[in-house]
Amino acid sequence: ATYVELSVPLAARLAEALGLPGLRPAAVDAARNKHATRGCLKTAGLPTPRNFLITEESKLQEAAQVVGFPAVLKPVSGAASLGVKKVTNPMEMGRCYKEIVDELSTLVVSSGALVQGSPDNKTSGQNAMESGVDLTVLMEQFLDGPEVDVDVVMSDGEYRYACVSDNGPTLEPYFNETWACCPSLLPKDQQVSLRDLAVDCIKALGFTCGVFHVECKYTSHGPHLIEVNARMGGGQVHECNRLTWGVCLVEETLLCALGIPSRPFVPREPISGTAYCYVNAGKSGTVKDMSKLEELIKRENVVWAKPLTRVGAQAVGPADGLPTWLCDLFVRGKSAKEALEYLQAIEKETPVVVE
């Protein structure tokens, strides 16, 4: 079993080779390749945005004609929104495509995750592919509307648990996350349609069991899938599900790996509301003060306030590139609305000072 994105294909292949329960490699590969995912959805008759696979720069014009604008350029396989950018015209598209390929060429593996390396570490396309980095870019139709996460537990071919959480507006053009709250504040009918789409997409990819972190949007023309991650979500997702619904996704992952049918107990009402965020740098500059985080940790209903940088480090604001995450805040309340308001009030206190 694994909880790390880059290890999912290996864990699936080991399980298959050893005759053990687990995810099937073909399904994992289809989920990790966004173009293959779109193909599976189309075959299953599920909503599929216009998309085009860009294997080289000469394909840009054809991609623009097929997909149109606005659109999103993203690595065909990636994580944590690295290399994801919105484009609104052909000129911007050409510039962003080059930026994404250059960015992918410098990615390195750190603690099992892809992270941005320095330009000095730039690899050739061949070396990048050998280290697991695919330089292929997918262009697809921009999807409007609010983004959600759907955490799903599948067992014996059916979902046994599905939690819908809201994501706040992302910082364009890089789609950096701003906040999330659980349970979702969307109308119940929209939550149900998002949950059903997430489960249908998981099935369309060929999965019958496991824990999945599914990203979706409720657009002006209904629910759409962004991507299926065939593992527990990272960051705050484990604690969010545990504190809100009492379901431990770590345990559920192990049950799947052992071939034990999953039937988590889910209360009729949430235990509490939760909200969390990675605080993005509002401007470029030097990190001057982080002492506020030590005081925040002591406050009631603050689950954690973790530093993600250090005093003296350089921070990048949205005007100059992909914003730097300064700290990780996680709070709880009697409801999701109360938790979110509490989180946003804390964020306004500027827990990390950049000058």
UniProtKB/TrEMBL annotation:
UniProtKB keywords: ATP-binding, Ligase, Nucleotide-binding
Residue intervals of the ATP-grasp domain: 38-258
Gene3D superfamilies: ATP-grasp fold, B domain
Superkingdom in the source lineage: Eukaryota
Coiled coil: none
PROSITE patterns according to UniProt: ATP_GRASP
Annotated InterPro entries: ATP-dep_AA_Ligase (IPR052032), ATP-grasp (IPR011761)
Transmembrane segments: none
Protein name, UniProt field: Carnosine synthase 1 (ATP-grasp domain-containing protein 1)
